[in-house]
# Entry
Amino acid sequence: MSSAGTTHLNQSGPTEFIFRMLSSSPKIQGLLFCSFLFLYVMILCGNTAIIWAVYTHISLHTPMYFFLSSLSFLEICYTTTLVPLMLSNISGARKPISLTGCATQMFFFATLGSTDCFLLAVMAYDRYVAICHPLQYPLIMSPQLCTQMVAGSLGLALFLSLPLTSLVFTLPFCGHFLEINHFFCDIPPVLHLACADTRVPQAVLYVISILVLTAPFLLICISYVFITITILYIPSSEGRQRAFSTCSSHLTVVLLQYGCGSLVYFRPPSSTPADEDWHLALVYTFVTPLLNPIIYTLRNKDVNNALKKAIKILIQIELTA
# Structure
């Protein structure tokens, strides 16, 4: 139980949450708003461009690019769940969010974030099959299996997120206005405001974090062990370089996503500094979704060429309009 973030305890009415101000200086608030808005627009544009390129070019209708476009769509939904409300609170007076609104944001954040982690594991399996079993790749990674794997990632995330969110919001919250030491309704800072024993929700959160973060990460590590062994046996240096280049993009995103998530959800609550969690959250809210299109575009000639063709088509449409 904590009263540090509680204000107006004597007020009656339903419980509402307000988010912590990132800065009290109007100049810094303006700078933060412009910076985060710019990053958000870049995330939307970059990920939308990848989806458009994969959808419009038949040469990219392969399992790898299907998963990449699914990841891009997921990143758009994921950031849209958090960023608009964050920008709204930075731009003016802090607006309260109802208990239901906070639960809804938490549910979508947990679902989309978990799906992201599962999908990264699916992408590692796709690379494993492509590199270690190239002749069987078209048979194993059929369109039906690819669709089932994406749907399964989302279904498993829903299965884990719904009971966790329900468990958190069955706890009592004492007071009318409660300040969340974060910029969105993340699970640890909301649990910190409950005026009841939170050991059971904390234990459930820990178990689900293992299922969402540790299990997929171990599968990714095992996949890359076999991938590395196979690549080392490739006779040509050019072939080895091409294979490592394909995998390094995925590994960069994996390390950021799982590293920051583990630091937030695997530490005991008592050892968590007040500001560290939301600093880490900025990484997987802005940096990772922005890096996905940049990394995959810069390192992938097929996506690069498809994007250039798509831009030329758009320019031609504008000129003829």
In short: The two ends are 63 Å apart (CA to CA). The chain has one domain: 6-320. Confidence is low (pLDDT under 50) at residues 1-12. The CA atoms of residues 50 and 320 lie 25 Å apart.
